[in-house]
Design goal:
Elements: E1 8-12, H1 35-41, E2 47-51, H2 59-68, E3 75-77
Length: 117
């Protein structure tokens, strides 16, 4: 269970919240089942950062898709390398763990239990 402090959420886009590379197909992006509900459950005081290896050329279509699907975010980082994403943070002296990593099966959204519903 997470603390009651405001959080920073960092999500990859392709394969994590939308079907991997769907934006490159004629059909375009497809939001994975359960993603919209999860994003709606993230408190407004929390920050959401999206990161993707998509090039900046895909910015307009990506932002329009996210808006049309009510996916709230504060920042999007495009042109990220395709390798591993590494999060490094210090723990609070109180013992509060300040960094979590959650790996997902590509193109599948399993319910997360980090937020009390």
């Amino acid at each position: 269970m997470l603390s009651t402090l405001p959080h920073t959420w960092i999500f990859d886009i392709d394969g994590t919240i939308v079907k991997h590379n769907g934006y490159l197909t004629a059909e375009g992006d497809t939001l994975l089942d359960g993603v919209a509900e999860f994003f709606a459950s993230i408190p407004e005081k929390d920050m959401i950062i999206l990161i993707t290896a998509r090039t900046s050329d895909a910015r307009d279509m990506t932002e329009k898709f996210l808006a049309a699907n009510n996916i709230r975010y504060d920042h999007i980082i495009f042109d990220a390398p395709v390798g591993e994403r590494i999060v490094i943070n210090d723990n609070k002296p109180s013992g509060l763990v300040m960094a979590y990593a959650v790996e997902r099966t590509r193109d599948k959204w399993d319910k997360l239990t980090l937020i009390e519903q």
